[in-house]
């Protein structure tokens, strides 16, 4: 037996439109779920989950609820637990990416070990052309020291070079 009170509370909480056809739509969706669910209690649970999913997706009409219920029935789901697992798996499969590219997920590290840091430093030193991590550190320090020492001189040259403060070329009029 359909629990109209609970369904209507969820329907209103979700902000779905209520009109003259709402009762008929609710009955159609519920009948479809009861026919395919394990029992009526599971059909009620699945109906409420369909309403909540529609609300989370920003839907305002009964079509979203109906589509959610149909999707689950077509997937062969017969109870609320299966729906939860199905939605969890579907969420994991469709992580949003930027510009259509999938998101690269990495495994979480409990704690970075000193060996991992050392390996990374050695790899970076080789990529930059240094013999060891110590020579890389010394070379980096010398470069930063040289840049700091010549900063005033480099800033004084800037107006003479015809560049703006941001480094863009100044337009010259003849």
Structure report:
- The chain is an all-alpha fold.
- The chain contains eight helices and no strands.
- The chain has helices spanning 4-13, 22-36, 40-56, 62-74, 80-93, 114-128, 133-149, 151-157.
- Helix 1 runs parallel beside helix 3 (40-56), helix 2 packs across helix 3 (40-56) and helix 2 (22-36) runs parallel beside helix 4.
- It is elongated, with a radius of gyration of 31 Å.
- The chain starts with a helix and ends in a 17-residue tail after the last helix.
- 14% of the residues are buried.
- The model has no long low-confidence stretch (mean pLDDT 84).
Question: What is the element layout, followed by pairings?
Answer:
Blueprint: H1 4-13, H2 22-36, H3 40-56, H4 62-74, H5 80-93, H6 114-128, H7 133-149, H8 151-157
Q: Give the overall shape.
A: elongated
The count of DSSP E runs of length 2 or more, i.e. the number of strands, is 0
The biggest beta sheet reads: none
Q: Which range does the strand content fall in?
A: under 5%
Ends apart, CA distance between termini: 88 Å
Q: Please, how many helices? A: 8
Q: Which stretches of 5+ consecutive residues score pLDDT under 50?
A: none
Radius of gyration: 31 Å
Helicity, as a percent range: 55-70%
Summarize the helix and strand pattern as letters.
HHHHHHHH
**Class by SSE composition:** mainly alpha
Averaged pLDDT, please? Answer: 84
